[in-house]
Amino acid sequence: MSLKIISFFSQNIHQGYPTGTLVRFLKAREWNVPKAHKMLVDCLNWRVENDIDNILAKPIVPTDLYRAVRDSQLIGLSGYTKEGLPVFAIGAGFSTFDKASVHYYVQSHIQINEYRDRVILPSASRKHGRHITSCVKVLDMTGLKLSALSQIKLLTIISTVDDLNYPEKTNTYYIVNVPYIFSACWKVVKPLLQERTRKKIQVLPGCGRDELLKIMDYASLPHFCRREGSGSSRHSGNETDNCYTLDHPFHQQLYNYIKHQASIIAPAGPYKQGSVHVHLPESAAEESDIAKTIESELQKFGNQTRLTDSLDALKVSDN
Fold first, then answer.
1. Positions in the chain whose pLDDT score sits under 70
2. Is residue 175 helix, strand or coil?
């Protein structure tokens, strides 16, 4: 791939490291140069068409709406690994995505991505004296239910946005507090994943505390990993530990940063209300297959559960 394309890079993509960015796109396309070139050009076009460079100047307002998004799209920064990688905690099981439109959730997700790339990762790089380009994610499956069927479309959209435009930004996915319904889905989904992706995913026993303490200090553990059975409740007893809430320092800093950027662009205000309508990409064939497989397994699980409930009801009636 010619490095001449570097001159067309957005600073917000490469953060001063264009060669490293090329490598990320090459990895994402298994080192196939033409495919990586196309992926990068498509990404640049997507950023221009959707004004992504200015998305951190478009706050979700009013604040009550943004708080509702935070309470139903559970994600936050819990700390850093011993090597300096940001640790993002995700409440996959308890996220309901039912307090706002799809566009608000996609906007919020992209804003967190951009804030990570423009602020969090450069800050970590300066602190550790080396270029840090990725994070780790800890996904809590507590509360995962059949109702997740209704969220598959949105989750596929978000996953596709990440895969096409933010490749190789997650070093490892740690999955904890796994219920049976996840184990059943994982068994059939795992073979569908590319080997590169499979190697990034680690399903840990219980809350994952002992394993995670090997790579991070206790203070950086997500609140749902600090004791067995703690789970990712939307509101823990200590709000400063619950990195999902808008009151957590990470989300306060993020939201204030976005409002400050908005005030620079339009100092007279007020903030424009309404979601940013980002073009929602079509999922790749692999992701469509995975989504369909998950949906099928959840439906099977639901049918089995209803059959068991029916049999139990018959037994009660016979008694």
1. 1-10, 146-149, 228-240, 268-269, 283-291, 294-295, 297-299, 301-319
2. strand
Give CA–CA dist 76/202, Å, rounded. Answer: 20
Closest CA to 225 of 241, 246, 202, 249: 241
Would you state the structure tokens that stand for residue 131, as one six-digit string?
Answer: 């270029």
Per-residue pLDDT, 15: 80
H helix or E strand, kind and range, residue 239: none
Given a contact cutoff of 8 angstroms between Cβ atoms, the answer to whether 294 and 155 are in contact is no
Structure-block tokens of residue 213: 């303490």
| Distance separating alpha carbons of residues 245 and 222, to the nearest angstrom | 13
Predicted local distance difference test score (pLDDT) of residue 255? 98
Strands in the chain per DSSP E? 75-80, 86-90, 135-140, 170-176, 201-203
What is the rounded distance in angstroms from the CA atom of residue 197 to the CA atom of residue 171?
Answer: 10
pLDDT of residue 304: 56
How far apart (Å, rounded) are the C-alpha atoms in residues 315 and 301? Answer: 21
Q: Confirm if 106 and 71 have CB atoms less than 8 A apart.
A: no
Query: Distance between CA 66 and CA 63 in Å, rounded?
Result: 5
Q: Is the pTM of this model over 0.90?
A: no
The pLDDT of residue 189: 83
**Cβ-based neighbours of 15, under 8 Å, separated by 6 or more:** 117, 118, 121, 122
At position 283, the amino acid (one-letter code) is S
Length in residues, the chain: 319
